[in-house]
Every structure is written in C-alpha cells, then in structure tokens.
Design a protein that fits this description.
Arc Repressor Mutant, subunit A; 3 domains; 12 helices; globular
C-alpha cells in the first residue's frame, strides 16, 4: 500500500479524528451529477456539516479529500454504502481502513506500536507510549522536520481518540486495546480492495494490511471461508494453491453486493 499512503509522517491527524458523523453526512449529501470540486464547493457554501467556522469546514474537507477522494472507485463505493444504510460497524471498519491507507502515521501506530503491545499481552496504552514512539520515528528521519513537543502531544492524543472512535481502542481518559469486531461483509470489501492491487491469493491472505485488525493468517483464512459461505466471494485452497474470486472487480458494484 506504499503507493497510496504517504511515506513521510505528517501531523495532519491533529485536525482530523475519526469524523464518523461528518463522513456519513458528507457522502449522504454527495451529488453524483457534480464533479468533486463542485461537491466540495457545495459543502463550503451550504455548511452542511453545521460548523461554526469556515476554517473548520476547510479542515474537514481537506481530510476527506485525502482519505476518500483520491480514488474514484473508493468514493463511489462509499457513497453507495452510506446511501444503502450499510450497518455502522461494517461501515466504520471500512472508513478506518481507508483512513489508515491515506495516513502513514495512523497506520504505523497500529501496525507497529499497538501490534507489539498486543503481542506482549498488554492492553493499556497512553499518550506517553505514543509520544515515545513518535519521537523514535522523528529521530529516524521519518518526518520532514523536527516536531515540537506540543505537536507530538497533539498527534498522540488525536491518534488515540481517533482509534477509539473507530473501535480499535476503548476508554475515555485511559485507553485500552479492545477485541475488534470486523463484520464479514466489511472484510470482503477490504479483501477486494487489496486484491485489486495484487492478484495473488497467497499474498492476499498474508497481506500485512490485516495487521490493522490484529488478524493472524489463520484468522484471515477463516474469514475467507465465512465469506465464501455467505456467497460474497469464492475461496478455494488446495495446499499452496489458493484461488479467490469476487463476483465483480468494481468496488462500487461490490458495495451493492455486500449491502444486500
């Protein structure tokens, strides 16, 4: 996924968060007859988010452009899922996945820091844990410039709040790792997205992106079996030969499949 995610960490997360309600408002009010620019202008002019300041609207639109508007297929699929009233748990999982694909900092906190804590059997995580991790990344040259302690603290706090809202963590002042519920329909959508970028069944099962949900290879295989049973896809495994077929290669069309 490196061709999609930024390789240099940025502090954009400070102005972001999960924004789940705003995201659903965004796609529910999207006009498919207008261009992306025209839709963004509509949100600016009509204040459909109901925000008190124009600058906050601009922040939100910039984040949504980064997360959900870079790939037309993703945009159309999300419009379909929101309009079909796809269940919240599944939609939130998909929005979380796409958010991590557009933000390396958010992605790597999960796949590096949280995954290591998960492997150690530790369930609590705090701002200091994330700050220490970010400081190590800065020391390794993964940001364009040095960050102030205020910026690092702001990023750490917003990352934890964002992951809580997406259901990866739980807790108010104290955050904890929580068992992630990934509906099979959302799993199948993510699987198609990943398969479009590399067609190998074996590589798909072993993709490191499943670490975003703390899934082992065995768990991923179980998900594919379940998705096959639900007729969301066809999954066949014979030794090292793995074949995974979807009813369509279009994310938008597949959004209709999983929504039904």
């Amino acid at each position: 996924m490196t061709q999609i995610r930024e390789m240099i960490y940025t502090s954009k997360i400070i102005k972001a968060g999960a924004l789940l309600t705003d995201t659903k408002t965004f796609f529910a009010n999207w006009n498919v007859t207008l261009s992306v620019s025209e839709n963004l202008d509509k949100f600016r002019q009509e204040n459909l988010f109901g925000k008190a300041s124009r600058s906050r609207v601009e922040d939100i639109l910039a984040i949504f452009r980064q997360r959900y508007l870079k790939e037309e297929s993703v945009t159309k699929a999300l419009i379909t899922l929101v309009n079909c009233k796809f269940p919240a748990e599944g939609l939130n999982s998909i929005l979380y996945f796409h958010s991590t694909q557009s933000d390396s900092l958010l992605h790597d906190v999960v796949t590096d820091l949280l995954l290591s804590l998960h492997g150690l059997g530790r369930h609590d995580i705090n701002v200091s844990d994330v700050k220490n991790w970010i400081n190590k990344q800065i020391a390794q040259g993964k940001t364009q410039t040095s960050w102030s302690d205020r910026t690092i603290t702001g990023c750490a706090r917003e990352i934890l709040s964002t992951l809580r809202d997406f259901g990866i963590l739980k807790g108010a002042s104290k955050k904890y790792l929580t068992p992630i519920y990934l509906p099979v329909q959302a799993f199948a959508y993510i699987a198609l997205y990943l398969k479009q970028r590399q067609p190998s069944g074996e590589k798909l099962i072993n993709s490191t992106e499943w670490q975003l949900f703390f899934l082992s290879t065995k768990a991923v295989e179980s998900f594919f079996v379940e998705a096959h049973q639900h007729r969301l896809l066809e999954y066949y495994a014979a030794g090292s030969i793995i074949r995974i077929e979807f009813p369509t290669n279009s994310l938008e069309e597949y959004a209709n499949v999983i929504a039904s």
